[in-house]
Fold this protein.
Amino acid sequence: MELIRKEDLVGKVEYERLRPEFRRRVMALKNKRRVAVGDNATIHFETRDTMLYQVYEMLRAEDSWDREHAVEDELDAYNPLIPQNGGLSATLMLEYETPAERSLHLEALVGLGQHVWLEVGDTEPVAAVFDNAQVSPTRISSVQYIRWPLDDDRRRILQTDGAVVRILFDHPHYEAQAVLGEETRKEIARDLE
């Protein structure tokens, strides 16, 4: 999938004009690409459009359109989340109701990076590759960026109508699984084209 280049972006005034329709389209896309895994984890499969939206919204929120290197900084932050090399990319959100509850659970979930899997059809599950920037020895961040590298066989199966695709968490303090709906499977299969 093509990365976002600076020249792909429109300016602040043009984005404000396009934003309502673009936002509506991206929110509908995000809904198709969101998978709840248990009560406290949500996987958001990312794509170029979701990351383009994120870049624009960060520039808008910080009003940094004209700040030196602002666009490049946002591209450096979000381009790595665009699926590459036939794999999948996602944002994992760990959500708890109160700050105290969140703190307690994020400490207990240290090591989660070795316990998140993607199972495509009957193949062996593939371990998620976590971005180490959100992990420390004492706790993890509530937002994790992850990738799943997929071989040719798994890509072919994932692109097959009706294929069962499952996300598994097998951490001692968080065990859950979810089967992707067919609409979500079709959406992420497009990332592999």
Q: What stands out?
A: The chain has one domain: 6-190. The chain has a mean pLDDT of 94. The helical segments are 12-32, 48-62, 70-78, 99-108, 152-158, 182-190. The longest strand covers residues 88-94.
